[in-house]
UniProtKB/TrEMBL annotation:
GO terms for biological process: Mo-molybdopterin cofactor biosynthetic process. This is Molybdopterin-guanine dinucleotide biosynthesis protein MobB region. It comes from the Bacteria. Residues 141-200 form the 4Fe-4S domain. The lineage of its organism: Bacteria, Pseudomonadati, Thermodesulfobacteriota, Desulfovibrionia, Desulfovibrionales. InterPro entries: 4Fe-4S_dom, MGD_biosynthesis_adapter, MobB_dom, P-loop_NTPase. GO terms for molecular function: 4 iron, 4 sulfur cluster binding; GTP binding; metal ion binding. It comes from Maridesulfovibrio hydrothermalis AM13 = DSM 14728. Keywords: 4Fe-4S, Iron, Iron-sulfur, Metal-binding.
Amino acid sequence: MKAIAIVGKKKTGKTTLGMALVKCLTGRGLKVGVVKHSHHGFDGAEGADTEEYKKIASSVAAYSPSQSFVSWDRERTVQDLMPLMDVDVIVMEGGNKIGWLPRVLMVREDGDNKEFYPELALKQYPACTRDNPPAAEDVEQLADMVMEKGFLLPGLNCKACGRDFCMEFVADILAGKAKVSGCKAMDGDMTITCHGNELGFNPFVADMLSAGITAMLKQLKGYVPGDIHIHIKNGS
Ligand code: SF4
């Protein structure tokens, strides 16, 4: 990969040159990523510059002492994005077709919710607005429910649990017919964590990786069978 930094004092035209360079490289058929640093966050002019870069670059990463984010000019899978998030709880807004986590359904009085897979719902809530917000006690109860019953499956649809889709497994968990620990993709002898988040993978892939890595490790002096930990620093 080629890379260059454009540096200089304020108002020396860094963004102007950067935008011109990105347009030029993009015009040559290259995918260009932009990384923008700001000491002051991205609420003001720096944010506007970043928005402009988003219009012409394939991806834009921005970081400041108070905020960092990455955007792409295309869809990425949720599985790609979640390991970057480094959080305790994920609240996903939208994603009706994502069937590997439970949901709460927002309903209007006259609404037909069949298209929103009610079998995946922990609870339904009446529609609300900013002027008509949910009651504080309802939000507290929802937070308690999320901490007690919220979960995330790897979303591989690998069929190892006997269901064709993770969505069916989620429905069975909510119906009390299965447990999260029954997901075979999270239940193998091998675990991989990325930024502290455990990644799910197909048991077949796990077996292949495990066998391959073990075979390589056996060639190393000092190898003894048992629990093995491999830590990759700054993997890219
Ligand atoms: S084993 Fe896990 S990842 Fe595979 S289909 Fe079942 S729930 Fe989904």
